[in-house]
Amino acid sequence: MFPKTFSIFIVLMWLAICDSFNQQTKRKNSTTTVNCNNPIKYDYCALNMIPLTNDFMIKRLSSSSSMQINDIDELCRKILLNEKCLRNYAENCMKSEARQTLSVMLYSVSRLNRKICSKQKRKQTTLTMMICLKKNPGFYQNILLKNLTETLYRISLEKRQKLKFPMICCNSYRMKESMIGEMIKNCPNNRQAQNELNIWIDSYSGDLFNLICGDYTEDSDKCETLPSIQSISTTTMMMIDNNKKLKWKSFIMVLVDLLNNLQ
Fold first, then answer.
1. The domain containing residue 49 runs over which residues?
2. Has residue 11 been placed in a domain?
3. What is the pLDDT of residues 123-157, one digit of tens each?
4. Which of 4, 173, 202, 251 is deepest in the core (most CB within 10 A)?
5. Average pLDDT, the chain
6. What angle do CA 187, 168, 159 make, to 5 degrees?
């Protein structure tokens, strides 16, 4: 998908970042006790370190009361706590390959979360975007809490191994397009909110996608050449629909498993 030497360089660069990140985390959390047999807890942490899948923000977006800047302050407090929770899990419970994959994603998430929460002006921009999201919160939650997770489970069952990376990337681009389109429909004149949502989506996924997507970029037409994701059994579909028998609800954790199970 891209030149081999460039691929090796990029991977080595990221592994160096991840190793450094993990060592810092290990030092910071050396006194923390982690129960590795409680995946539900860490699934919750993965969901709640992303503002758009954070329980507190979901409730605020769905409530009838107007949003205020103190809601963003509370959101920041909660997402930073859940970042720490997932770092603890990665460092203490995951095998090396999976830990490195999750570290790349944590690096991207942490970088944006700190940008959102470090300055009052950026918090105000976040509030402006959230007010637009509040006009149809179920649409975004359905994509991030159901459609994306379901799609990644479908891709994990795909037998054509070489298509998995492109399928991850291209389906994510489609979901991004849907989310931005809904934002434009609900807030057609609010370019600030539209741009902020675009920045969020790109920032959370960009570093990983730079590693895995190759020629299947958002601007290329290669995604149009991909076959559709193969259908899966009714039993598996029922598992996905009720989301009770699946290991993870967080799309981040599903993606980590998917990438590390590639043959």
1. 38-260
2. no
3. 999 999 999 999 999 999 889 888 888 888 888 88
4. 251
5. 83
6. 145
